[in-house]
Design goal:
Helix content is 48%, strand content 13%. The protein has 180 residues and is an alpha/beta fold.
Length: 180
């Protein structure tokens, strides 16, 4: 199985795609991962980058994981226009798109509902998967407050946070196990 991760630091922090790959192996599934990331950039950056289009169309991926900028998230119309473009390439390539819903900053939990709504709206529009990382993130914080999911900047993921991200994405793709 071949998986392309498209995003920014919330994707590459702690080399989360490698954590995902190892988790899949633990669950009995061999995967190859590739990532196209640039810190602070959203899907609009990737939609305007020819490397993104080329990788999607010729990378022979089974899944493409899409992560938009999180802090701040920006205007929904920008995210939507970029997603429309990228998802059209994913469909043309015969791969399956999956939105990677991020989490809010530590002091902005109230915005998680809006962030989740944006990702879910796009997932409905494009009839694709969504990995509800942000929702699971806050569930885990309330269930196990002693596990710090945040890196010291209180925006990015700690090692434990990146493992949770990998679990939720694997679950969304139907790759064995359960993160609950």
């Amino acid at each position: 199985m071949r998986i392309l991760f498209i995003g920014n630091s919330h994707t590459y922090f702690n080399d989360m795609p490698a954590i995902f790959k190892n988790l899949c192996k633990e669950r009995g599934v061999e995967v190859q991962v590739t990532m196209l990331t640039k810190g602070g950039m959203g899907l609009d950056y990737h939609a305007d980058n020819e490397q993104t289009r080329f990788n999607i169309l010729y990378g022979e991926y089974d899944y493409v994981i899409l992560q938009h900028v999180a802090h701040p998230m920006g205007e929904f119309a920008v995210m939507e226009a970029a997603a429309d473009k990228i998802v059209s390439w994913i469909r043309e390539a015969g791969a399956v798109p999956c939105y990677y819903m991020t989490w809010t900053e530590e002091d902005n939990e109230a915005f998680q509902a809006e962030m989740a709504a944006r990702y879910r709206k796009l997932a409905r529009k494009h009839d694709c998967l969504v990995a509800p990382v942000g929702e699971k993130w806050w569930e885990e914080i309330h269930k196990n407050p002693s596990v710090d999911l945040y890196y010291k900047d209180r925006r990015h993921a700690s090692e434990a946070g990146s493992r949770l991200v990998a679990q939720v994405i694997a679950d969304a793709l139907g790759i064995g196990g359960d993160c609950s």
